[in-house]
Design goal:
This protein is an alpha/beta fold. The protein is built from 13 helices and eight strands. It has two domains: 44 residues, no CATH class; 263 residues, Alpha-Beta Barrel (TIM Barrel), CATH 3.20.20.140.
């Protein structure tokens, strides 16, 4: 690449990152600003839009979280230029009456979401009458997608009803998010026994519902095992970045060099997700900052890929 084009891309990336990540990386951003050559865009230029595909509202059952209150979470997200967040409900993890949980979530997003929260309802395909929960989510609560918790709801990804759910959601144009993990198994409360989600059947299952839109959230490399290449090659499944670990982990994953993942995931299949408030949202932002990503890659990760999933 010609030197002048390289410099333009570097300067664009610097100002882009400074605008979006300054609250969390102020010392680093200040250093970048001092080293910016002439011709850089102004430091006070508008920051990019960031869509967070992975947040939860209400109380996590097993410990108090700092930003469990909706208004506190919104303020925190806005501080880091996150303009839209797809919200599930922690209450859906252990409650049985999911319709009441979905109704409360939709009401909370509508009345207290400050225009930025998008509700994602939950259904359990292993329970009777899940079709009615799905219908109400779509027709009554107007949610654009579902967030599933197979480890907590007691079914595997080759369950016949799960396969049927994918087909029904596809008919309604709904995105199906599968939470591969919420909490590290090593620190689970001793009163619960939550199994690991086995990703092995997923590629074959999704191929049987080719119109289904599926996203894996909190999909750490060890949970995906040897199936990364098949999921990327044989399906259109997307992934969030909340569980990606390691120095420069996002960039290395795109290149196929992240040692935690046995395969590469192209940038077109990755979406920004923080798992807030369980994880600090700064963690996901730092993952973008520490990887040597081009401006175009950052824009895809931060908002463009998400828009393609739910419009």
């Amino acid at each position: 690449m010609p030197r002048d084009l390289q410099e333009a891309d570097t300067l664009g990336r610097r100002s882009f990152l400074k605008a979006s990540l300054a609250p969390v990386t102020l010392p680093i951003a200040a250093a970048l600003a001092r080293s910016t050559a002439e011709g850089a865009r102004p430091a006070d230029s508008p920051g990019p839009e960031i869509i967070d595909c992975n947040v939860h509202l209400f109380e996590w059952p097993f410990r108090n979280l700092k930003y469990a209150r909706t208004d506190a979470l919104i303020a925190k997200l806005r501080k880091h230029r996150i303009t839209q967040a797809w919200a599930g409900s922690f209450e859906a993890v252990l409650h049985k009456q999911l319709d009441a949980i979905n109704r409360r979530l939709a009401d909370e997003c509508r009345t207290r979401g400050d225009g930025m929260l998008i509700p994602f309802g939950s259904v359990n395909p292993a329970w009777p009458d899940w079709e009615e929960d799905l219908r109400r989510c779509h027709e009554q609560y107007r949610v654009p997608g579902l967030r599933l918790y197979p480890a907590y709801h007691g079914y595997t990804l080759d369950h016949p009803e799960f396969m049927r759910l994918l087909g029904e959601a596809a008919k309604r144009g709904m995105l199906v998010q599968i939470a591969m993990r919420l909490e590290d198994e090593r620190v689970h409360h001793p009163a619960i026994n939550v199994p690991l989600v086995n990703a092995e059947p997923l590629a074959e299952v999704v191929k049987k519902a080719p119109e289904a839109k599926v996203q894996l959230i909190n999909s750490a490399g060890p949970l995906l095992g040897n199936h990364v290449s098949a999921l990327v090659r044989e399906t259109k499944i997307s992934f969030d970045i909340a569980a990606i670990e390691g120095n420069g982990g996002v960039g290395r994953l795109i290149e196929g060099k992240n040692p935690s993942y046995r395969g590469a995931i192209p940038v077109d299949r990755l979406v920004f997700g923080s798992h807030a408030p369980f994880f600090p949202c700064e963690s996901a932002l730092m993952k973008l900052f520490e990887s040597p990503l081009a401006l175009e890659q950052l824009e895809k990760l931060m908002h463009a890929n998400a828009r393609s999933l739910i419009g």
